[in-house]
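Readers outside the structure-tokenisation community will struggle with the description of the input data as it stands. I therefore recommend that a typical entry be quoted early in the introduction. An entry of this sort, consisting of the sequence and the corresponding backbone structure tokens, reads as follows:
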Amino acid sequence: MNTKLQYKIVVLVMTLSFFGACSLEEYNPSGSTADIVFSTEEGMNALVNSAYYNFSAQFYGREDIMFLFEGGTDLWYMGARGTYAEQLLVYNERLDPTTGQIRNTWQRLYEIVNYTNAGINRIENVVYSDENVKLAKEGELRFIRAYAYWMIAETFGGVTLRTTETSGVPLTAERSPLKDFYDLIISDLERAAQILPYHQDQVGRADKKAAYGMLARAALTRASYLEYFENNKAEADQFYQKALDAANELIDSQAEYGCRLYDTFEEVFAPSNNKNNAEALWTITHSTNSALNPQPNNANRLFRWYLAKYTGLCGMPSLEVTEYGRDGASRLMPTRFLLDIFDEDIDARYYGSFREHFILPLTTQPYSWTTTDIARFEKSFSAGSVTIQPGDTALFYTKKVITDKDSRPYGVKDINDTYNSDGTISTNANNNPYYPSLMKFRDPDRTPGSDAGTKNVIVMRLAEMYLIAAEASYKLNRTSPDAAYYINVLRTRAAVKTPVDRTSEMQVSISDIDLDFLLDERARELAGEHLRWPDLKRTKQLENRLGQGNQNPDITAFNPDKHYVRPIPQSELDVLENADEYGQNPGY
């Protein structure tokens, strides 16, 4: 039975069970209740599968979680100057309790929590033919609950923490502090790390390395809150140590856990490595058979949201080139700060992350420059005097300064076209949306023109463990060389090797490392990977990196007394009898 069908069955069973006592008559032809269905191995397995469902159907591959966990940070501007999701990207007055992305995120995360609570509280009494399989299912449920609660805590702060399933519509609720969230998250992950197998038979199922990876991330997050928000460095160090230990568990035993760093950064995001990625610790899967995806026509759409306009320009086809992706929906464009923190001459992560060149396809005709494109790209030659041949560069959007761009035979937008000197986006209509495009999520195997993406989303990978180990080591002992060691493993991999080996220039020492360096290094390695907002939040750096004179001058409305959490959906408060007691998050 496929996961989508299992999910629908589980939803039906839980809905009938929860609302069976209401005044409306509902007919359940099987007579099944949750207690009956989930008392069997088959029923419990279906419940576990359903707990995964929203991660692919609603989050990883869709734009809501991208806006929530990457938008509104130092790395991304609101692309194409549109208004879609501006409330999350620039913190304007539209960020309020009625925001759709907020409501959807709350509802779907608590749906995941309810499934996992239902399973965790029943699985002990379920008879399995193989006790190891039973332990694995419990481990998956605990991992999923921990991951969902991490997302809830990061988005909304100290809200509702439940460990038992909810029947019907809750009419009252109470808040729990972040400490309680992280106590549960870490406890679940420690249990999951004990009982999950080293390897699962399906990509996307949580295994032991996923549990240790998430334990490292959660412990680092808890330590950061203790240090930066509670000024409790002594207790923070206990969690920094826990994060370091969990990260080192994976770093030191890669063969045992079945993971490794690729030899080059470019290999990590090569489409050919997507479906069985050696560096991935946990992956959200999307099938190449669109009918098997929760949203068949809107599966993984990340290939679209970071892409600059290229179609119909300088001879490029008016429809997409699948190698580049489907443009026309520019949501996030890199800040000047993000582009500037790469030294592309020595750090291969820049060209491994961003596309600057678009090549005229071999299947097209030679292009003779038109007056429209000459005006758009401010060329010094006349229409028809210059031709671009198939296979040659048609467009070049670069972070460099190009002094002869008016005479080059292809379209050029350089750093000074796209951005003003203060880092803001150029208001010249000829200069936007043309910028280096993040290409980590490219999907050349799709049907052209379709949003039915085929690629998995890597949400946690081994390189993050080196960054966690570096940060935890630095916090525990700021004079120890260990932090530099972990960073240099990644920088050695990232170094340009040809025509000149730049490895030595990429090395850092402990004297180079501070919080700003660590955050910048995380940006160079992890940009776009759904971690930037949590990183700046946990270190209390949103207020220091947004606004005029800072890394994202496009954001002028950030309020540190309000915007470190998102509003609780009004639709949730409206059904609570104790809504006044529960309260809205401050400022909303």
Remarks:
- The longest strand covers residues 280-284.
- The two ends are 44 Å apart (CA to CA).
- The mean pLDDT is 93.
- The chain is about 45% helix and 5% strand.
